[in-house]
Design goal:
Largest sheet: 5 strands, antiparallel
Low-confidence stretches: 193-206
Number of strands: 5
Distance between the termini: 92 Å
Number of helices: 4
Shape: rod-shaped
Oligomer: single chain
Mean pLDDT: 80
């Protein structure tokens, strides 16, 4: 058994005077201290460094796989870009530039007159600049029979330039004619955006 009374006679400076059980206890404490210190100052920093390297490796692996996927799909992306460019070019050709707007206004009025409609109002308003395009509103008031109005609206959809029909109100007028009040819209692509698009298309083609 351990006799704790022996601790009263221990001389810490003289190990030979220590009881056997106290020597073992101190040896274990010293060993535990050495192991704890070694882990704290030697092993733990290395483990943290290893963890950081593993995290970095995982990030690099993820980045590599993402870039690899882009490289593998690059031909498909380029083909899609060319298709989008072609479609955009078709739509862009349907938008009048500044010099073509007066001609388009004449085409709209001529389409109505050709169907026998009478214009009571034909009023282009100030352009509205949106994020990607310019909207050109046109307020019209025309009178005619139902089939004439329907044919006029169909003719607007067939124009070589894009013209859309906004708010529309049809009421009965005199002599069995109808009065249609409507807002027409055509669109322009800003010149500076068109220049940027051309540059982008050249880069894709290259």
């Amino acid at each position: 058994m351990i006799d704790f009374s022996e601790l009263e006679d221990i001389n810490l400076a003289d190990i030979s005077s220590w009881p056997i059980w106290f020597r073992w206890a101190m040896s274990i404490l010293v060993a535990v201290g050495i192991l704890a210190g070694g882990y704290k100052f030697l092993i733990e920093p290395e483990q943290q460094a290893l963890t950081r390297l593993e995290d970095s490796e995982q990030q690099l692996r993820t980045t590599f796989l993402a870039k690899k996927k882009l490289v593998v799909n690059l031909p498909a992306y380029q083909a899609q870009m060319l298709e989008i460019r072609d479609r955009f070019g078709v739509v862009l050709k349907q938008l009048p530039n500044q010099t073509e707007v007066p001609e388009l206004l004449i085409d709209i009025s001529q389409a109505g007159l050709a169907r026998g409609l009478k214009f009571q109002q034909f009023k282009p308003s100030d352009p509205r600049t949106d994020e990607f395009y310019i909207t050109l509103p046109i307020a019209i008031v025309v009178t005619g029979r139902f089939h004439q109005l329907a044919e006029f609206i169909s003719d607007l959809a067939s124009l070589p330039r894009i013209v859309t029909l906004g708010d529309m109100n049809i009421s009965r007028g005199a002599d069995q004619e109808l009065v249609m009040k409507a807002d027409l819209f055509t669109y322009q692509y800003p010149e500076e955006n068109a220049d940027q698009t051309t540059d982008a298309e050249e880069q894709v083609s290259g």
